[in-house]
Design goal:
Blueprint (H helix, E strand, L loop, with lengths): L1 E5 L7 E2 L8 E6 L2 E6 L1 H13 L1 E4 L5 H4 L10 E4 L4 E4 L2 E2 L1 H10 L14 E6 L3 E5 L3 H12 L4 E6 L2 E6 L4 H12 L3 E5 L6 H6 L2 E3 L19 H15 L1
Parallel strand pairs: 1-5, 1-13, 13-14
Antiparallel strand pairs: 2-4, 3-4, 6-7, 7-8, 9-10, 10-12, 11-12
Helix pairs in contact: 1-7
Length: 239
C-alpha cells in the first residue's frame, strides 16, 4: 500500500490572500472564504487519492480541519499535530486514548504578553499563539519550559508549545503500522513537517526547506500545489 501524507496549509491549500481568479474555495467560516486550491491541483488530488491512501496531516485543530472540503473524503486524517485521528470523518477514540496514555499534556499556563497574542489551547493537546516577534517569543518561552516535557517552535508569525513526543512523524509512524503501508510519500512546507518528511520514502517540499530528495515536474509557472501533485502522480505511475 502506498500512503501519501500531506500537510495542508501552504502545501496543498493557500490563504485567500494568495488566491488567484479561478481558484476553488475549500474552506469557509461564517460565510467568509478562507482557503483555496488551484483548479488543476483540485482535480489532481482526486486522481492521486484514487491511486494511494491520501492522508491529510495537519497541526490544525479538529474544528479547523472540519471546515475544509477538498472535494474528497480521505479515509484517514491526522489532526492536532498528530494527537487525533479521524476515520471516515469521525474521531478514532482508540487513537485519542493512546495519545493521552503516551504523552504528558498537563499544559503550562501561558498568557498573552508583549510578544504573544491570540493564545489558544488546541484541543487541549498543545498551545498556539501569534507573535510579531516569534523568535524572541520562542526564546523566552524556551527558558520557561526548559527541562520539561515541552518544546517551543516558531514558524512564520506563529509560536507553538508542544509535548516533545507529539509530532507529525510519530503520528505517521503509528498510522503506517496500523494500515500496513509499505511506501510513504510525504509533502510539507515548514519545520513542523520535518519529522514526517524524514520518515518518507519520498519527501517533497518547497525549495525553501533543505531536503535531499526533491522531485519537480511541470511548467515553471505552475503553482506549488500543482507541481507537488504532478510529482506524486509521476511517482505513483512509476511504482
Amino acid at each position: 500500500m502506498i500512503l501519501f501524507a500531506s500537510d495542508l496549509d501552504n502545501t496543498l491549500i493557500h490563504s485567500y490572500k494568495a488566491a488567484k481568479p479561478g481558484d476553488i474555495c475549500v474552506e469557509t467560516k461564517d460565510g467568509k472564504e478562507l482557503s483555496f486550491m488551484p483548479p488543476e491541483a483540485f482535480m489532481l488530488l482526486k486522481e492521486v487519492a484514487g491511486k494511494s491512501e491520501f492522508v491529510p496531516v495537519t497541526t490544525r485543530s479538529l474544528e479547523q480541519y472540519r471546515r475544509i472540503d477538498l472535494g474528497i473524503m480521505p479515509r484517514y486524517a491526522i489532526v492536532a499535530h498528530g494527537a487525533l485521528l479521524l476515520k471516515h470523518g469521525a474521531e478514532d477514540g482508540d487513537w485519542r486514548a493512546e495519545t493521552l496514555n503516551n504523552l504528558n499534556i498537563q499544559l503550562p499556563a501561558i498568557e498573552q504578553n508583549e510578544y504573544l497574542y491570540d493564545v489558544r489551547y488546541v484541543d487541549n493537546f498543545f498551545i498556539f499563539a501569534k507573535s510579531d516577534a516569534p523568535e524572541r517569543a520562542a526564546e523566552r518561552l524556551g527558558r520557561f519550559v526548559d527541562k520539561t516535557d515541552f518544546e517551543v517552535r516558531a514558524v512564520h508569525n506563529k509560536v507553538y508549545i508542544l509535548p516533545r513526543d507529539l509530532n507529525k512523524g510519530a503520528a505517521l509512524q503509528r498510522l503506517k503500522k496500523r494500515i500496513g503501508a509499505d511506501y510513504v510519500i510525504c509533502a510539507g512546507d515548514s519545520e513542523l513537517d520535518l519529522p514526517m518528511l524524514a520518515l518518507a520514502d519520498m519527501a517533497i517540499s518547497p525549495e525553501s526547506v533543505e531536503l535531499n530528495n526533491h522531485l519537480w515536474l511541470g511548467k515553471p509557472d505552475l503553482n506549488y500545489g500543482t507541481k507537488l501533485l504532478l510529482s506524486v502522480q509521476a511517482r505513483l505511475n512509476y511504482l
